[in-house]
Design a protein that fits this description.
85 residues; alpha+beta; two-stranded antiparallel ribbon; 13% helix; binds zinc ion
């Protein structure tokens, strides 16, 4: 299951929320608005030797071995990756 960060325009946020699918809509528990989804980068986790594979950034799974590699990919593909901010 994918893991995302969610943010709401009211300022509320959910970090590393496990959801059933990439189409899941999260509603804010404070203002009941629809929360904006960001791809979680596992900010507090170290990168395993085999890398971290993100299945939902492209048609094919993409494996990253460093934060720099992931950031380069995000820039190239114009992705919003939550933990980079
Ligand atoms: Zn809200």
């Amino acid at each position: 299951m994918p893991i995302y960060d969610f943010t709401c325009k009211c300022g509320n946020s959910l970090i590393n929320e496990l959801v059933n699918s990439h189409n899941t809509t999260m509603f804010c528990n404070k203002c009941n608005g629809i929360m904006q989804k960001k791809i979680s980068l596992f900010a507090n986790h170290t990168y395993p030797k085999e890398g971290i594979t993100l299945k939902h950034v492209a048609k094919e799974p993409v494996t990253f071995h460093s934060r720099r590699e992931m950031k380069a990919y995000a820039t190239k593909h114009n992705l919003i990756l939550g933990a980079l901010e």
